[in-house]
# Entry
Amino acid sequence: MQVKIADTWKNILQPQFEKPYFKELIDFVKSEYQKHTCYPQENDIFAAFDFCAFDDLKVVIIGQDPYHGENQANGLCFSVKDEIKHPPSLVNIFKEISTDLNQEIPQSGNLEEWAKQGVLLLNATLTVRAHEAGSHQKKGWETFTDAVIKKISDEKENIVFLLWGKFAESKTKLINIEKHTIFTAPHPSPLGAWRGWFGSKHFSKTNKFLKSIGKKEINW
# Structure
């Protein structure tokens, strides 16, 4: 299995690819994909980086695991392939956008267009075994994605980090809060959405901030 990642990220992340933990991780992932059904498809594992160039980066949204249902995951956190039913968390994300920005809920749950506008949709763990949530956690992915977050914090300025739920909020320690803007809210899953996800207005707040620093707003 080769690591195919967009050129804009390759040089920045190259030191991670050469570390022992990453080589062990790739060996593990390669073995899992050979022995089991895993998601997303192999060529979508690094899709978050493929669609969102480092130079264009404006917003980071952090998820935990890819969807583990059939044909759902497409390599972008909270996103699903076209024609796939919206999972509950994505339903609530779209409901909040609809209320916050007074716009219709889209038919497709594919968030590639967000990524192309500079939104990095980063899961902490980039792969999962089918129907086994969390099955690829603590194998090295978190070390890699933490390094990504830290690198963004160190190398960029004025990035908006949207941290939904306690897991995502735990990544605050990797972010220089003097250089970047962080918005936190409960996770949009049905379990926590009613505790403050609805009404959090993260999408209008993000656009207001981007506009204030002279950057183009995101078409959510």
Remarks:
- Residues 20-35 form the longest helix (16 residues).
- Residues 24 and 140 are 8 Å apart (CA to CA).
- The two ends are 34 Å apart (CA to CA).
